[in-house]
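Per your request, structure below.
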C-alpha cells in the first residue's frame, strides 16, 4: 500500500459516473484487450522450483478480491483485470502454469492460502509483521496511503479528529491507519474519527462523492484512480505517506515462495514487469529487486 502515482487515461478503464457515482467495472471488450500486454515466456529455472503438488496440477490458483481498481477489479463480463492481476498472471506464465483466479472477500484470502484452497494471494496486500505471523510475502511493489475529499473541501489527514472517513473493510487503512489516527485524537482530548467501513472501494469512494463521508483513505494508486474516475468530484487531501511494500501471499514456509520470487525477478529482468506498470501508469512504485517479507524491515 503506498506512494504517489500520476495515472494516465487508461485504455483498459472506462469511467461510469451515473447519478454522481463511480463504478470501477469496465467494458468487457476493453478489459480483455491484451494487444499491448507483453508476452511472458516460461522461466525454466523458476519453474523447476515449483513444488510437485502445484506443478502437477498445471495451474496456479490465485486468490483475489477484485474490488480495488486499478490494482484488481472486474470488467463487465465479471473477469478480474488490473495491473495486479496481470502481474499475478505473469508469475503463473513464468512458472509454466495457467493462472486460475479465485475471487474471494479480502479477509478470506489469507485463510484460503493457509488452508490450501489457493496457492497464492494477489490482492494489494501490505506486507506487515502481523500478517507475517500467518503467511510469507513475496514483495513486488511499494505504495503509500493517500486521502481524498470532496472537491472544494479541504481535509488534513493529520488533523481529522471528529470527521467521517470512508475505508474499504479489512484494508490496512481500516485495521491500522485510521484507528491509530483516531486513538491519537482521543488521547489529545479531541473527538474520535468516525470510520465508515464498506465492502468495496467503489462504495467508500461514493460515500465521499455523495457527502456521506468527509474523506476516504486508500492506497495511493487506488485513490488517484478514484479521483480520475469521478471527474471533478474529488480532490487530493494531503500528501502520500507511510510507504510500505505490497506482497504476494504464500503459505508460511512453503517452497512455492522462492519459486514466486524467482518468477517475479525474471519478469523484472526481462522487462515484462516494467511494461505492465507502464501500461497502467503506476511505474513509480516499481522495484528492481524482488524480496521476501520486507515488511519486517519497515
Amino acid at each position: 500500500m503506498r506512494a504517489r502515482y500520476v495515472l494516465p487515461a487508461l485504455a483498459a478503464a472506462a469511467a461510469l459516473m451515473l447519478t454522481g457515482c463511480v463504478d470501477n467495472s469496465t467494458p468487457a471488450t476493453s478489459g480483455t484487450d491484451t494487444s499491448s500486454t507483453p508476452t511472458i515466456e516460461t522461466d525454466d529455472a523458476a519453474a523447476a522450483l515449483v513444488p510437485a503438488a502445484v506443478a502437477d496440477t498445471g495451474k496456479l490458483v490465485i486468490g483475489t478480491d477484485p474490488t480495488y481498481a486499478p490494482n484488481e477489479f472486474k470488467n463487465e463480463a465479471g473477469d478480474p483485470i488490473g495491473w495486479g492481476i496481470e502481474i499475478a498472471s505473469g508469475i503463473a506464465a513464468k512458472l509454466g502454469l495457467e493462472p486460475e483466479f479465485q475471487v474471494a472477500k479480502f479477509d478470506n484470502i489469507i485463510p484460503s492460502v493457509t488452508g490450501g484452497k489457493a496457492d497464492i494471494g494477489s490482492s494489494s496486500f501490505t506486507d506487515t509483521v502481523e500478517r507475517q505471523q500467518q503467511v510469507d510475502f513475496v514483495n513486488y511493489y511499494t505504495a503509500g496511503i493517500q486521502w481524498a475529499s470532496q472537491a472544494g473541501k479541504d481535509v488534513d489527514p493529520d488533523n481529522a479528529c471528529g470527521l467521517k472517513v470512508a475505508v474499504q473493510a479489512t484494508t490496512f487503512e481500516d485495521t491500522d491507519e485510521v484507528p491509530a489516527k483516531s486513538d491519537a485524537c482521543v488521547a489529545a482530548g479531541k473527538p474520535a474519527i468516525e470510520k465508515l467501513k464498506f465492502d468495496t472501494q467503489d462504495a467508500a469512494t461514493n460515500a465521499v462523492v455523495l457527502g456521506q463521508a468527509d474523506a476516504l483513505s486508500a492506497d495511493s494508486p487506488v485513490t488517484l484512480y478514484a479521483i480520475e474516475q469521478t471527474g471533478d468530484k474529488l480532490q487530493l487531501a494531503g500528501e502520500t505517506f507511510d510507504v510500505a511494500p505490497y506482497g504476494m501471499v504464500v503459505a508460511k514456509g512453503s517452497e512455492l515462495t522462492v519459486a514466486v520470487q524467482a518468477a517475479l525477478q525474471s519478469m523484472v529482468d526481462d522487462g515484462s514487469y516494467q511494461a505492465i506498470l507502464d501500461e497502467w501508469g503506476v511505474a513509480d512504485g516499481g522495484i528492481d529487486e524482488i524480496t521476501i517479507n520486507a515488511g519486517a524491515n519497515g
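Residues 150 and 180 are 23 Å apart (CA to CA).

Regards,
D.
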